Every structure is written in structure tokens, then in C-alpha cells.
């Protein structure tokens, strides 16, 4: 018998939330363990998964549970949606789920039916990537597998590492970049031709520029991607020739106000410099570094804003919203909203580059303070201002999804999912529904006696 869904009554947050629109929330209960993953299926649905091995499909507008998918016997390690082909109306939206039980489940998101369970893996699949252009998907573990929509294994690599592939991104030239420990491996996919009718995958290059395990990997645009490591190395790569375009290895720069004992303590905390997550837009890279947030401008090639202690614990996930806003969630159980605001600063004053110090390549030395060329009289820098604090979870918030008009969805180690709603918008909708109901019942304009 399936567990009964519990949905809490509507709750409201207190005053003093600044520009935070998410002042109402719905608490969704269906999981029995840590909820680690959220994936968007379309404009109205999302799926959740975690350590209980269960996948739940939800309505993002109402919080209604639509489907519960069971089949895995251990925790979920990766989830990704496989959208239908535009040219094939009969093709359905698929959901791929990898588990520590060394299987990948393939589900129909409309019916909840498990289409197939792939069981030929020699190790746990840690990441899944869809290459929509080629209508294939990749599985990353101790090897790299290439699969089609019919779930045929097209080709795979030999055993790469016991560490396994932790992250994958697609790059130009039918290539993918794979993070394997501290190595970045470039693979090229060879598509079938008349001469060679079989798929193949070729290891092109191994890049050993990182000194420690790569924790984060993300595309910037069509010509570049970025990686971040456990010891605070940020590298920006050319996606065409795989060369390093910018790097930073200044692990920690304590604020001058701290005393010597505090500085020693901070420098000894390796978690304070781990680059846990990236998100990018056309202008900036937003990086979660330990407990801090940093905004690195691609054109200026430097950090333009930072909050070194944005949270009390490690930040696990960040994403950019419209109107120069940013959301972060952390092991401290908080979800916070930030706004990037411009400010003018004289060139004679030191620009607080914080974690990165990216004026050039490599480490900053004593000569770095001497400009190579004359700077402009005024340098525009920015600040990250806290505009909202969403307090609802009692434990680590693993990630979130932004659903525009439908709100924000968060998942946590407290087994809960919270659907955050725009309070002003929801109040307007309730008033409109009441108005329509009164009009239908004839109570809006009662006949005069």
C-alpha cells in the first residue's frame, strides 16, 4: 500500500522579508529519507528523488502528487529528463533515474510506467546527461556509456577509474568533458557513417591542471566551460581546443579585520574553499565557494561581487533569477535570495576581489598591485545584498527549482519538499476566484427588493 500524501495547510512567513515575494508555502510529504534531487519535466510538473529510492512526480502549481515511481532498491544517485523529439509526436517524455543498486530506470512521465530497467552496469552510475541534438543519453560511472532512446547500448569506454565520472557536460565537435577525480577527460563521439556503421567513443585528451578532485563542472556558453575543485581552484576552459583561459588558485583571503587566530582557523578549513556549484549567464559566473558566493565577470575577467559568509554552512546549490537576483541554499537549512547591485568605487581604493583575485593567470604576487596599463578613473563594482531569507526546512537544503509564476521548489535532508509561493500573487488569485464564485451564485449584484 502506497504511503498517504500529507500536504500541510498554507503557511505564511513573517514581516521584514525585504524584496522576497515567496511569503507563502506548501509543505509536501511523500519521501521517507533525504530528498537530494529535483528535476523539471515541463512548465507544470517536476520530479523528486532521494535516498529512499522513490521518485515522485508533482504538480508545480498545486503541490498535488501525480505519480509515485517505485523500482529501485537503493538510493537515487542521478536523475534527468529525456524530452521527446520535436519531430515525433508519439514520443513520450522520459525520466532517467540512476541508483546505487547499479541500475538505471527509464520511466514514462505521463503514465508512471517503468519502460525498462537497465542492469548491465559494473558500478554505480553517478551522472546522466542527455545530448538532445543526437537523441542519445550518456551514463557516467567507472566507464562512459552511450545509449539511444530505445535503450540500446551504442558503445562504451573501458574501465576509467574506481573514482568514477562525477560530472559531464556537452561541448562542441560531438565531444563531452568528464570529471574523473582531479582529471578532466575529453571524449569524442563518432556517429555512424556508410563506411563505419557503428557508434564509437574516443578518448581525445586528459587534462591534469587541477590539483584535487573536481567538484563542479558547467557550461558557460558555446565556446567555454568552467570547473571548480575541492581545494578552491577555478579554471575557465576553451571548449574548442580545451586550453585554460583563466585560472585562480588563491585558496582563501581572510578579511583584514580578523585577528591572527581567526585567520589561522579559516585557512585550516578546507571546506571554506571547496567550489561546490556553478551557474552562469552571458555575463557572469556565479560560484558557491564553501559558505560564500562570488560573481565573476567574464568580460572584466575579475570578481565584481562577493559574500564570503553568505551562509553558516556549505552552499550546495545556486541559480540565477531574472532582474539580477540569485538564490542559494545551504547545509544550514536556509534558502536565501540575493540581488547584485552596482556601486561606484574610485580606482585608488582597493577593489575587493575576495576569493579569486583574477586580474591575470596563476597566483597573485607583489607586482600584481602595479597595473600594467592605466585604469579608468572609476571602476564599477557590485555588491550582493540579501533581500530574502526563506526559513522552512529543519535540515540541509539539497537543491531547488525555479518555476517562474508557479514559485520555487526546495528539497531537504528533513525528507520534505516545500513549494514556495508568491504571496501577493496568490492573494490576488484567491480574490479573483472569490469574485467569480460570487458572480456565479448571483451574490455579487443582489436584486434590489
UniProtKB/TrEMBL annotation:
Q: Name one Pfam family in it.
A: Beta-prop_WDR41
Q: What's the chief localization of this chain?
A: cytoplasm
Sorted alphabetically, which SUPFAM superfamilies does this protein's record hold? WD40 repeat-like
Xref: PROSITE patterns: WD_REPEATS_1 (PS00678), WD_REPEATS_2 (PS50082)
Task: Answer yes or no on keyword Chaperone.
Answer: no
Question: What are the entry keywords?
Answer: Autophagy, Cytoplasm, Repeat, WD repeat
Query: Which GO terms are recorded in the biological process aspect for this UniProt protein?
Result: autophagy; regulation of autophagy
- Cited InterPro entries: WD40/YVTN_repeat-like_dom_sf (IPR015943), WD40_PAC1 (IPR020472), WD40_repeat_CS (IPR019775), WD40_repeat_dom_sf (IPR036322), WD40_rpt (IPR001680), WDR41 (IPR040102)
Which Gene Ontology cellular component terms are annotated? lysosomal membrane
Assembly and oligomerization: Component of the C9orf72-SMCR8 complex, at least composed of C9orf72, SMCR8 and WDR41. The complex is formed of two protomers, each individually consisting of one molecule each of C9orf72, SMCR8 and WDR41. The protomers homodimerize via an interaction between C9orf72 (via C-terminus) and SMCR8 (via N-terminus). Within each protomer SMCR8 (via DENN domain) acts as a bridging protein between WDR41 (via C-terminus and N-terminus) and C9orf72 (via C-terminus). The C9orf72-SMCR8 complex associates with the ULK1/ATG1 kinase complex.
Q: What does this protein do?
A: Non-catalytic component of the C9orf72-SMCR8 complex, a complex that has guanine nucleotide exchange factor (GEF) activity and regulates autophagy. The C9orf72-SMCR8 complex promotes the exchange of GDP to GTP, converting inactive GDP-bound RAB8A and RAB39B into their active GTP-bound form, thereby promoting autophagosome maturation. As part of the C9orf72-SMCR8 complex, stimulates RAB8A and RAB11A GTPase activity in vitro, however WDR42 is shown not be an essential complex component for this function.
PANTHER family, per database record: WD REPEAT-CONTAINING PROTEIN 41, WDR41-RELATED
Please give the name of this protein: WD repeat-containing protein 41
